[in-house]
C-alpha cells in the first residue's frame, strides 16, 4: 500500500476536488475518478450480465445497487493504492448508463415490473403504430415504444405508472431525489424538439390523444423526466445517495451532479465527436454509430434513430443490438484451448492474437461468414437472434479467416445502416472508434475503415469508456466561460490529445463489399435458424 508523502493528485482527492463518473454498461459497471481537468486518477469496476427471464432481457434491482457499490468501492481502493487516500468528498459527479428500455414506477417510487432493457425486441406493434402516428421513427427499444406496448397488451401495471425514466435517470434520482435526464438520454425516450430542447409538445399531444383511447387522465409529459442540457446543475448528492454509493459511510453528501446521460452521449464526449460533421462508432455489447448532422434528414428511416448530443444538437444514430459479445465468447473458447494444452494466456493476450491473425486473412474472409446475433436485430428485421458461423465448401478456413469473418460480421449490420446515411448525403470528416476492441492497435480500426470506406481515428481515450465521458461532463459543470461543449472539449480536454488516423485501404473496401453481399444473402439462413430452434 502507498505510504509516500502526499502528491498533488492526492491533494485533489483529499480536498474533495476530484470528480467521479459512473457508467452502468451492458457487461460492466465502471467508476472513474478524475482531476478537474479530466485526467484519470483512479478507477474500479464490477462485471455483471443481463438475464433472459421469461423471454425478457433484464437486470434485477439488486444487480444495480450491489454492482454500483462494488464499482465505487473498487475505485476507492484504487485511489488508496495509487495515491494513499480514499475520497471522502467529491467536486462533482455524473451518472451514465445504457439508453432506452422500460423502467416504470408507482407514486412511491417502487419499480412496477422488472427492468426491460434496450435489448428487448417485443415492441413491434407499438413502434410501428407510433412511427405512423408521430411521423418520426420510433425504434423498438425506445422507452415510449415499451410504454405503449404495455398499454396495447393491457398489462395490469400501466394504470399505476407515475413516472418513467432510463437506467441513468433511475440511479441519478436515487442519488439526488431529482427526476431529470440529460437531453441525449431523453432523446431515446421520446422525440426532442431542437427549438425548445425538450420533448416535442405537438408529438406529446398526439401521443396523449392516442393514449386517452385506452387510459383516462394520463399525460406522458407528467411521467417523463425533466430535460436538461450539458452544463446545467442537475441536483446534489444527498446523504441517502452517498450511503448508497459508499458502503463504508465515508463519502459526504453535497456534490453537484451533471444531467444523467446515456452511453451514446458519453461515448460522443469520450471521442470528442459532438460537433457537426463528426461521428463515432462505439463497439461493445451493441455497436452503434453517431453522426452529428448539419441539416435534418430528408426522409424517415426505420433503421435510423434521431437523437441528440448532450447539448441537444441533432444526431443520426445507427444502432445495432449485437456488437462484440460473440467475438469475446470465442476469445474465451480459445483461452480455454491454450490453457488445456499447457500454455495459459490472459483474455486480452488471446484477443490480441486473434485480431492480429485477422490482418493476414483474405480481405473478404475467404468465403467464411459469421452472424453475431445473440439477440434480435431491428436493422435486419429479426426479432430474435442465433449466433451462426457459415462457410462454403470451397472457402479457406484458418484462424485468420475465422476471426476476420467475426469482426466483419460485427461491422456488417452497422454498414447497412450507414449506407442509408450515405444516400442521404451525410458527410463526416472522420469517424472515431471507441471501445475495448480498439485497444489492439491497427486491427479493428483498419477493418472498420474498410467497412465504412471512411477515415477512422482512435484516440488515447478510446478505451476509457463512458464512465470517463460522464466524468468529463461533470467537470463541464464548473465552467463559467459560457463556452459551448464542443469548444470546451477542444480547448480543455483534447487540446493535447494524441490520436492515430487510418485511411481506408482499397483492398479492404473491396473485400468488405464482397463479404457484405454474401452476408445479406445469408440472412435467409439466420432467419431459418430463428424459426428452427
UniProtKB/TrEMBL annotation:
<keyword id="KW-0119">Carbohydrate metabolism</keyword>
<keyword id="KW-0808">Transferase</keyword>
<feature type="domain" description="Carbohydrate kinase FGGY N-terminal">
    <location>
        <begin position="19"/>
        <end position="244"/>
    </location>
</feature>
<dbReference type="Pfam" id="PF02782">
    <property type="entry name" value="FGGY_C"/>
</dbReference>
<feature type="domain" description="Carbohydrate kinase FGGY C-terminal">
    <location>
        <begin position="280"/>
        <end position="477"/>
    </location>
</feature>
<dbReference type="InterPro" id="IPR050406">
    <property type="entry name" value="FGGY_Carb_Kinase"/>
</dbReference>
<dbReference type="InterPro" id="IPR018485">
    <property type="entry name" value="FGGY_C"/>
</dbReference>
<comment type="similarity">
    <text>Belongs to the FGGY kinase family.</text>
</comment>
<keyword id="KW-0418">Kinase</keyword>
<dbReference type="GO" id="GO:0016301">
    <property type="term" value="F:kinase activity"/>
</dbReference>
<protein>
    <submittedName>
        <fullName>ATPase</fullName>
    </submittedName>
</protein>
<keyword id="KW-0859">Xylose metabolism</keyword>
<dbReference type="InterPro" id="IPR018484">
    <property type="entry name" value="FGGY_N"/>
</dbReference>
<dbReference type="GO" id="GO:0042732">
    <property type="term" value="P:D-xylose metabolic process"/>
</dbReference>
<dbReference type="Pfam" id="PF00370">
    <property type="entry name" value="FGGY_N"/>
</dbReference>
<dbReference type="InterPro" id="IPR043129">
    <property type="entry name" value="ATPase_NBD"/>
</dbReference>
